[in-house]
Design goal:
- The complex is a heterodimer of chains A (about 110) and B (about 110).
- Chain A has about 110 residues and is an all-beta fold.
- Chain A has no helices and eleven strands.
- In chain A, the strands form two sheets. In chain A, strands 2, 4, 5, 6, 9, 10 and 11 form a seven-stranded mixed sheet that branches.
- Chain B has about 110 residues and is mostly beta strands.
- The chains are: A mainly beta (about 110), B mainly beta (about 110).
- At the A-B interface, strand 4, strand 5 and strand 10 of A face strand 4, strand 5, strand 9 and strand 10 of B.
Chain lengths: ~110, ~110
């Protein structure tokens, strides 16, 4: 019962570097989400997906890209890392659409950009 | 524009007493609300939810109240236990939007 798995758990990047945060869920959920959590700011939605091949922007998409080629995987790509992207990133999934179901979260990926 | 607000960043409560965490929202289209608990270095975990067709939902020690006219919901924890010490987030969603909007969180500390 792995649920939502995120890798890596920790990463330090230099300004301008690129990286991909991986997210996999084994619950056959259609809906997947990426959030970032900054101190005192709660959780902000970066991107979401309602199924394989379908993605859309959330509240704070700038500087990020996503893809959803399979139901299980929803990677988040940072192309040119900036200090403002230092944050804790959470991937989440849900079986049902919002208004009927809950989100299941991964344990988070802490990213520092220096 | 913060559509979901938790105006109390922190709250301390004695063990055994009631904890009341508050959440306000501005978007009248929101019709489904959830509460999450988060421990340090872990992902948020689901606690309880409420649909706008109800004004109360209970699950064990946790009760959520919804006041639609005031655009306000609250989470009551009775009795509070030291293990309840965590950050609590409320979240809301509107029909057809496919996303949840989270508040900024309230850190609850239950004192033994």
């Amino acid at each position: 019962n792995a649920g939502v798995t995120q890798t890596p758990k920790f990463r330090i990047l230099k300004i301008g570097q690129s990286m991909t945060l991986q997210c996999t869920q084994d619950m056959n959920h259609n809906y997947m989400y990426w959030y970032r959590q900054d101190p005192g700011m709660g959780l902000k939605l970066i991107y979401y997906s309602v199924g394989a091949g379908i993605t859309d922007k959330g509240e704070v998409p700038n500087g990020y890209n996503v893809s959803r080629s399979t139901t299980e995987d929803f990677p988040l790509r940072l192309e040119l890392a900036a200090p403002s992207q230092t944050s804790v990133y959470f991937c989440a999934s849900s079986r049902q659409s919002p208004n009927t179901g809950e989100l299941f979260f991964g344990e988070g990926s802490r990213l520092t950009v220096l | 524009d913060q559509q979901v607000k938790q105006n109390s960043p922190s709250l301390s409560v004695q063990e055994g007493r009631i904890s009341i965490l508050n959440c306000d929202y501005t978007n009248s289209m929101f019709d489904y609300f959830l509460w999450y608990k988060k421990y340090p270095a872990e992902g948020p975990t689901f606690l309880i939810s409420i649909s706008s067709i109800k004004d109360k939902n209970e699950d064990g020690r946790f009760t959520v109240f919804l006041n639609k006219s005031a655009k306000h919901l609250s989470l009551h924890i009775v009795p509070s236990q030291p293990g309840d010490s965590a950050v609590y987030f409320c979240a809301a969603s509107a029909p057809g939007t496919y996303k949840y909007i989270f508040g900024t969180g309230t850190r609850l500390k239950v004192l033994a």
